[in-house]
Fold:
Amino acid sequence: MKVKTILVSQPEPKIENSPYFDLQEKQKVKIDFRPFIHVEGVPAKDVRQQKIDLTQYTAIILTSRNSVDHFFRVADEMRFKVPDTLKYFCQSEAVAFYLQKYVVYRKRKIYVGKRNFEDLSPLIKKYKDENFLLPTTDKLKDEVPATLNALNIKWKEGVFYKTVISDLSDLADVYYDILVFFSPSGIESLFHNFPDFKQNDTRIAVFGNTTAKAVEEHGLRVDILAPTPETPSMTMALEKYIEKVNKGK
Structure:
């Protein structure tokens, strides 16, 4: 069956040159964006109940833009002045770059990993005498605490924000040829909103093996998978599939 409509379970890209817009133009398909999950901040009083005293930490581990935003939000709510001496360990360059929203970059001690959390290990190990705080979500990947525990460092996890299922009730009678998912939470949201969802002719595109596993555990079929050596991005995987099924338009 030909593809005319796609729903991506994420917010619409803010950059004009997003590959999704190129895909839409090139393949003459309609692409809509809708976050199936969203992030809500945990109030400072609830962070305190986790026995977190911000004055005790000399280093912060930041895994995402959300962790940056919510660390500084909680610090503000607690009226805690973030010291200039605080060390920042950022999972990627994108996270480190985003940190500039809150601190004067060149005046801070910032250490940057390459991409995966494991890439931070050698940097953290170098400063093993620091007291580390990991501001994170309630849906933390198991590999993160496992990696930190293996380093034998002093660290504490704090839930500063939560992943919440979005209300999608207005989509009940809307059909898309392809649904695109990037996390197991997206699949959880689909079934929370539509418990009787049947895949039928809907194609499902997923990014990552954990997302693919979640799809299959719900008895659904994965039609498009990324990343692969041939299609390292979701837009490339979508384009390859669309070109294949839309031939002869």
Q: What stands out?
A: The radius of gyration is 21 Å.
